[in-house]
Amino acid sequence: MVTGPAPAAFRPMPGMGGRHRQTLFGPLFRRTPGPAWTLEMWPTPDDDHLRVHLAVPDDAPAVAVLFHGLEGSVDAPYIAGLARRLRAAGLGVVAMEHRGCGAGPLNRAPRLYHLGVTDDLSLVVHEVARRFSARPVLLAGYSAGANMLAKWLGQCPDDVPDAVRAAAVVSAPFDLTVTGPHLDQVLGGFYTRVFLRTLIPKALAKAAQYPGTLDVDRIRAAKTFVAFDTYATAALHGFDDAAHYWQSVGCGQFLAGIRVPTLLLSAADDPFNPAETLPHDVAARSPALRALFPAQGGHVGFVGGRLGRPSYWGERQVHDFLLDHAMG
Question: Could you tell me the pTM of the whole model?
Fold first, then answer.
């Protein structure tokens, strides 16, 4: 296991100790602007494109590549916050948006994105390593993006460029066979409904691009991830159903293959990912992994400080871990 100085214990902001309060604080109340991004459209081998945002000055000693979560974008508060923090430390930052995400038009290919997609991530990391060849590359993924990142690092370790020095995996769903159906039950399916508000129209738009590829009536009627991931995600991307998709792509099964120093940061009270899915044993056995699993923090939360002056403990842990390895 990767070792280092023990961080100060996480203490939630007074009045913000609950798992749902921690989870919802950022999306509802955090308004951190990102750095001055330059948008580029990077082509993919299947005649599509990726929206890639760059803030990399010529004198940056290292470059961090960030991957957002489900239905996020470069404007997600956790991406903007970490990007600003890394830029303040002098690093360059690149943020990729998954296909169909962000402010641009729907992507062209007969696919969107899902939690097991790693070809786009690999393309971006390799291009960053090539373009900034004299500089170390650091990686960070959140939630769905964390699953993609950890899966790629562990499943395809020989594909990881030598320039990659460290990675951070935040609030990953280590076992999607647990997380998928669990999310449909939490708060009466509240979080599922929030995600489906944008996922369903996106899938219907893809069906309109490629008539006959999807059952639009079943997608339109989906009220759960079981239904949506069966009739949209699985059907569009070659899985049998939601269960087959979840079993195939959950990143926990790939962690033992990770060779790059990697921080696993998740809260035991994450309302998306039950505590029993945290990979304590795998992390303890791996020379590449550093597990940081505080009791509280919610999903991509870790909001400390005080009302009117919040602090973001998890963001600080990612920043410190990446910088510790940037020049190693």
Answer: 0.97
